[in-house]
């Protein structure tokens, strides 16, 4: 089992309810839990199926150089990139049309 964190934005209520079954919602859109890999994968499948237009990031403790791994789903300025075996986050430029 590993500590897992799921952070969500603009997801439907039915997905919030499903996340709350397996994890504790400690702030709006922030879920934490100590779950197995199998449960974590099931939670991610639920996120993929019910996300609609929302965006989600899931991070969990693992035996890597950084001590954790993560994956993202949905549109966000932050995108995962891999450099020299490390997963990092890169920022896309601000879309001026959407900012107005």
Task: Supply database-style keywords.
alpha+beta; Alpha-Beta Plaits; 100 residues
Task: Provide a descriptive summary of the structure in words.
A hairpin with a 6-residue loop joins strand 4 (55-61) and strand 5 (68-73). A 5-stranded antiparallel sheet has the order 2-3-1-4-5, covered by helices on one side. Strands 6-7 form a two-stranded antiparallel ribbon. Helix 1 runs antiparallel to helix 2. 10% of the residues are buried. It has 3 helices and 7 strands, in the order E-H-E-E-H-E-E-E-E-H. It has 100 residues and is α+β, with helices and mostly antiparallel strands. The chain has a single domain (2-99), classed as Alpha-Beta Plaits, CATH 3.30.70.
Q: Roughly what is the average pLDDT, rounded to an integer?
A: 90
What sequence of helices (H) and strands (E) makes up the elements? EHEEHEEEEH
What's the Cα radius of gyration?
Answer: 14 Å
Biggest sheet: strands side by side, in what order? 2-3-1-4-5
Supply the CATH architecture: 2-Layer Sandwich
What does this entry show, briefly?
The chain is of the alpha+beta class and about 100 residues long. About 30% of the residues lie in helices and about 45% in strands. The strands form two sheets. The chain has a five-stranded antiparallel sheet with strand order 2-3-1-4-5, with helices on one face.
């Amino acid at each position: 089992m590993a500590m897992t964190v799921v952070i969500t934005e603009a997801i439907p209520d039915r997905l919030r309810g499903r996340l709350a079954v397996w994890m504790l919602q400690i702030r709006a859109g922030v879920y934490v839990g100590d779950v197995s890999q199998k449960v974590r994968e099931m939670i991610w499948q639920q996120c993929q199926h019910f996300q609609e237009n929302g965006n989600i990031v899931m991070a969990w403790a693992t035996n890597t150089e950084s001590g954790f791994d993560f994956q993202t789903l949905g549109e966000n300025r932050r995108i995962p990139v891999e450099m020299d075996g490390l997963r990092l986050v890169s920022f896309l430029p601000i879309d001026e049309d959407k900012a107005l």
